[in-house]
Amino acid sequence: MSYADKIFVDMCRDILDNGTSTEGEKVRPHWPDGTPAYTIKKFGVVNRYDLRQEFPLITLRKTALKSATDEMLWIWQKKSNNINDLGSHIWDEWADPDGSIGKAYGYQMGVKHQYKEGMMDQTDRVIYDLKNNPFSRRIMTNIYVHQDLHEMNLYPCAYSMTFNVTQRKGEDKLTLNGILNQRSQDVLAANNWNVAQYAMLLHMLAQVCDMNVGEFVHVIADAHIYDRHVPLIEELITRKQYLAPKVTLNPDIHDFYEFTKDDVTVTDYVTGEQIKDIPIAISEEKYMNAIVAVDSNWAIGNKGQLLIRIPADQKRFREITTGGVVVLGRKTMDTFPQKKPLPNRTNIILSTNEEYKVTDAVVVHSIEQLIDELKSYPDDCIYIIGGDSVYKQMLPYCDKVYVTKIDREYEADTYYPNLDEDPDWKIVFESEEQTYFDTTYTFVDYERVKPQA
Ligand SMILES: NC(=O)c1ccc[n+]([C@@H]2O[C@H](COP(=O)([O-])OP(=O)(O)OC[C@H]3O[C@@H](n4cnc5c(N)ncnc54)[C@H](OP(=O)(O)O)[C@@H]3O)[C@@H](O)[C@H]2O)c1
């Protein structure tokens, strides 16, 4: 039986039986319906794979080794941060419209640093040391670069490799071992994928440095199973296990930069059925805004209408949202002059009516469809503009809310959640008091208190 299966099953059993739940904690990941995505987690999981014995692919379900290799080469060899250089679509949701994921992953591997031997990036430094100074205890990479975190669309999860070379008794060739440090891992979606990638990296580097492969150690600080993955994991780990497949690399490649995914051959890979449509939690870095006018009771409307129209408030609304994407419900759309979308903005309207169409606007029919549509726009230009039902459904996706607080009590039938009473929100800006005839109001910006990642 594949040893990777045994490690995977033991790890999952341990997480399920002995892990701690994040339920009740402030967690940002959520499911597309807005429910918080809680996990059962284990701190400090350490898995050791002896690459001399077999290549660590689980057989419980298939791991697409060529695609996993392609992504690893995208980071380590192409040193790219652009999804257009990648064969798969796993990074699409994190990419800007031009395809960049910011200063993350491959970008960091490609940054050149000054060493006494000259300027080198991290991949070249590793290869240089393995060839020239193999017993060094400093052969390591790190892409969790604090100074650039604010420009990364997702903070790196698998962030550091430490290479360590041993001379085994009676062997001519040196042995290359490696430790992968990972801060966080969604076990069902990514465990074997990452294991296969870094095992492959060790195989490739060993081949080009004329070494044997040794051990691969995977250290995961937060190894977690999402609540909605538990039944899938329970089923997966009881499946039949098969022998590990045979994985070989094209032996003619002696330069790391010449490897492609097609130099990998997998034979005799018998597996259980693939799990289709694994629900993926929307992760913590998604970020949208809401903009709303409330009275002193957080009321927002009455009988389908706004409570009051204040010209300076409407001007501020225009200034904030112009050039961006506004998301609204069909009923709010119906209150717009001539029922026309707002100019100079992409209007996305929610309606259950499949026949409903609006010129110059996008219509979506569910929150899932909306989230999918919003993937094509940068997060920070998306504004949820109401009404009541859309505000409530989209609040879990928002990190910032621009509130116009009107210092009056109106007769009302719809309310916004009171952010002053919610410890998840804090005020980050408050304007001077403004007046409109006898009405006073202030502009108050709220930001979600970020949970500890
Ligand atoms: N104070 C403010 O800043 C502010 C801003 C905007 C609105 N408002 C107020 O809010 C009130 C309107 O709120 P509302 O809740 O009645 O209307 P709404 O949220 O504007 O629109 C509700 C409609 O949106 C569609 N919809 C909502 N969720 C959906 C989903 N998950 N999937 C598909 N379609 C979905 C449905 O359209 P179909 O019926 O076509 O299926 C639903 O009837 C009004 O009083 C308005 O003045 C206040």
Alpha-beta classification: alpha/beta
Provide the low-confidence segments as ranges: none
Tell me the number of structural domains.
Answer: 2
CATH arch. level architecture of the largest domain:
2-Layer Sandwich
Query: Strand content of the residues, in percent?
Result: 25-35%
- Mean residue pLDDT: 93
- Please write the CATH class name of the largest domain: Alpha Beta
The CATH superfamily name of the largest domain is: Thymidylate synthase/dCMP hydroxymethylase domain
CATH topology of the largest domain: Thymidylate Synthase, Chain A
Proportion of residues in helical segments:
10-25%
Strand segment count: 22
Total count of helical runs of at least 4 residues: 10
Taking the sheet with the most strands, its summary is: 9 strands, mixed
User: Separation of termini?
Assistant: 36 Å
Shape descriptor reads: elongated
Question: What hetero molecules are in the model?
Answer: NADP nicotinamide-adenine-dinucleotide phosphate
Based on CA atoms alone, the radius of gyration comes out at 26 Å
Describe the structure in your own words.
By secondary structure, this protein is an alpha/beta fold. The chain contains ten helices and 22 strands. The chain has helices at 3-18, 65-76, 106-110, 122-132, 187-208, 230-236, 311-321, 330-334, 367-374, 388-394; strands spanning 20-21, 39-50, 113-115, 118-120, 140-142, 158-166, 175-186, 212-226, 246-249, 264-267, 288-294, 299-302, 305-306, 325-329, 346-350, 362-364, 382-384, 398-406, 414-415, 425-430, 434-436, 439-448. The strands form five sheets. Strands 11, 14, 15, 16, 17, 18, 20, 21 and 22 form a nine-stranded mixed beta sheet that branches. Strands 1-2-8-7-6-5 form a six-stranded mixed beta sheet, covered by helices on one side. A three-stranded antiparallel beta sheet has the order 13-12-19, with no helix packed on it. Helix 2 (65-76) crosses helix 5. The radius of gyration is 26 Å and the shape is elongated. The mean pLDDT is 93.
